[in-house]
């Protein structure tokens, strides 16, 4: 189980007491927290020894039977335990070292459920947490740059920073973000060869990122990219957000690639805000940005440029919040979530030049009009 997983808490708090009360001393159960180093290792050992394909929690192993999820465990566990007890009892699962763990934690005369309480899992035990820190640093840097430009526009009418961001400097920042995205999506592709759907989604997003790298080399300004490349970037975000929404709403196991623990993140209490899955929020955000872009192609207005930039800015702030939670609060990082954060960061850099220029024009044209009056 994971202490941040609401499905685990549902089983432990709402269903397990009845099972414990029914069987009493006949049943000894070890509760293993997968967020600790020892728990992570035990989960890995169990999956390898018993050829368990799922990495989701809650997971209950009874002898050689494996039950997963807040529906499967309450539904099947009582009958399974009764059947095994009536046929002679239940032995330890075929997991190397499990007998020694049981004997060291649960005395022979006790029953029930004894959690293993150990220190928190090291932050950088998973490379995905390091990737999350890199993404977090990039997003915070982007916000700091935007704040600096905003301060300069407020204190003095100077377009020089906007021109710099629209040129080589801005393209370099977007280029670095795209390279990070390629690395993250590549880790998903490498771990998705047995899942055609995930392979298609991650492969499509990878193709978008690679195409963007070439366009960043060819284009002379960010404004050129924003005019026609925005739909592809938004499509990449929609694919990622759609997959996350599917996982969150159907409570299926996510394919996490070669690093990270997407399931721990998606099963945490932070996977929804006010009952709305974060993936759904992401879909709505990307669709809103796409709608504004389409309107801007039909009838160009400075206000829409400013609105596009503002939405990307808010998306990055939201991504900073979610990315911070993964390594520092949940203790695990989701590569899918990190890719969505990178997409939002790229959208920020692409929409910023036109957005700041629109804000500049609206601000100083209004001031000039008032002075004229």
Distance between the termini: 69 Å
Which stretches of 5+ consecutive residues score pLDDT under 50? 108-120
Strand fraction equals: 5-15%
Sketch the topology as an H/E string, one letter per element. HEHEEHHEHHHHHHHEEHHH
Largest sheet geometry: 2 strands, parallel
Number of strands: 6
From the alpha-carbon coordinates, what is the Rg to the nearest angstrom? 25 Å
As laid out across the biggest beta sheet, the strand order is 1-4
Supply the helix-strand structural class: mainly alpha
Q: How many distinct helices?
A: 14
Mean pLDDT across the residues is 83
Q: Percentage of helical residues?
A: 55-70%
Report the principal-axis shape: elongated
Describe this structure in words.
- The chain is mainly alpha-helical and 373 residues long.
- Helices cover 69% and strands 5% of the residues.
- It has helices at residues 6-23, 37-50, 72-86, 98-105, 127-155, 160-166, 168-190, 196-218, 222-228, 230-250, 262-266, 278-298, 302-330, 335-372, and strands at residues 28-31, 59-62, 65-68, 112-115, 272-273, 276-277.
- A two-stranded parallel ribbon has the order 1-4. It has a two-stranded antiparallel ribbon with strand order 2-3.
- α7 (168-190) packs antiparallel against α14 (335-372) and α12 packs antiparallel against α13.
- Mean pLDDT is 83; it is low at 108-120.
């Amino acid at each position: 189980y994971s202490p941040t997983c609401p499905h685990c808490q549902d089983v432990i708090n709402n269903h397990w007491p009845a099972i414990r009360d029914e069987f009493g001393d006949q049943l000894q159960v070890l509760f293993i927290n997968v967020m600790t180093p020892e728990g992570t290792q035990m989960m890995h050992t169990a999956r390898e020894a018993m050829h368990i394909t799922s990495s989701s929690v809650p997971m209950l192993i009874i002898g050689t039977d494996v039950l997963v999820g807040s529906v499967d465990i309450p539904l099947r566990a009582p009958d399974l335990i009764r059947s095994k007890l009536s046929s002679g009892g239940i032995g330890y699962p075929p997991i190397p070292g499990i007998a020694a763990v049981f004997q060291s934690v649960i005395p022979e005369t006790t029953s029930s459920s004894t959690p293993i309480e150990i220190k928190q899992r090291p932050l950088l035990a998973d490379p995905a947490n390091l990737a999350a820190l890199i993404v977090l640093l990039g997003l915070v840097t982007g916000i700091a740059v935007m704040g600096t430009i905003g301060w300069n526009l407020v204190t003095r009418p100077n377009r020089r920073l906007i021109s710099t961001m629209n040129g080589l400097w801005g393209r370099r920042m977007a280029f670095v973000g795209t390279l990070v995205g390629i690395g993250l999506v590549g880790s998903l592709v490498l771990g998705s060869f047995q899942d055609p759907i995930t392979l298609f989604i991650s492969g499509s997003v990878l193709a978008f990122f690679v195409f963007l790298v070439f366009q960043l080399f060819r284009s002379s300004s960010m404004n050129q990219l924003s005019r026609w490349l925005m739909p592809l970037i938004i499509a990449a975000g929609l694919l990622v957000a759609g997959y996350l929404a599917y996982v969150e709403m159907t409570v299926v196991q996510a394919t996490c690639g070669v690093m990270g623990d997407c399931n721990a993140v998606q099963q945490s209490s932070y996977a929804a805000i006010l009952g709305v899955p974060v993936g759904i929020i992401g879909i709505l955000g990307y669709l809103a940005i796409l709608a504004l872009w389409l309107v801007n192609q039909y009838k160009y207005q400075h206000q829409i440029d400013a609105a596009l930039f503002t939405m990307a800015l808010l998306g990055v702030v939201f991504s900073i919040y979610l990315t911070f939670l993964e390594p520092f609060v949940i203790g695990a990082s989701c590569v899918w979530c990190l890719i969505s954060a990178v997409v939002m960061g790229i959208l920020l850099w692409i929409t910023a030049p036109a957005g700041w220029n629109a804000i500049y024009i609206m601000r100083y044209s209004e001031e000039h009009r008032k002075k004229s009056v």
